[in-house]
């Protein structure tokens, strides 16, 4: 497994707001421009999810189906970016944003961690479209995915951005699969805090690979994170209200 030598200290320098700094979808909804604006104003890094539209545009949205977030049934990937730009999230005035809209809002002021949500057999051009959208953006960006085929696609394109594995699991056979992914030359790992500590994470950290956790919502998860990883992806509270010992 390659040892990371590039400086990724910015990736772990501040807490990472899960799907933006939302308020658990009360008034500020996940993966919306207000949630990202709120994160920038608080000085938090931003984690968000990317889906791939019917017209090959990366948009910021987590679910495959639109029911939970938009109140309508339907496959997010069956819609064009233009159509999604007219669909309200959570009954608010906010619509499904494109990756380009996110970049224009953030303007390099805080790091962005982009998780590509794959669908095997339906991702042709996804990695290319993401990197094309990022072309010319000068702020700190990291790319990650659970999906090994998307990680392969990203690495094949030789991006200038760090690429990481999103993962979970507490069993040795799972670690074998994770280690296979790391052989792609990945730069960091985002891991479920509830499955720490484990031998896979101990090994990658010993080799200089930064590890962030997901998704931290309480004090116990904070303590678990900082005992076994480098930074947290959080939601539902303000990390500025506590001091990590």
Automatic annotation (TrEMBL):
PANTHER family: GLYCEROPHOSPHODIESTER PHOSPHODIESTERASE, CYTOPLASMIC, GLYCEROPHOSPHORYL DIESTER PHOSPHODIESTERASE. PROSITE patterns: GP_PDE. Pfam families: GDPD. One of its GO terms (molecular function) is phosphoric diester hydrolase activity. GO terms for biological process: lipid metabolic process. This is Glycerophosphodiester phosphodiesterase. Residues 13-245 form the GP-PDE domain.
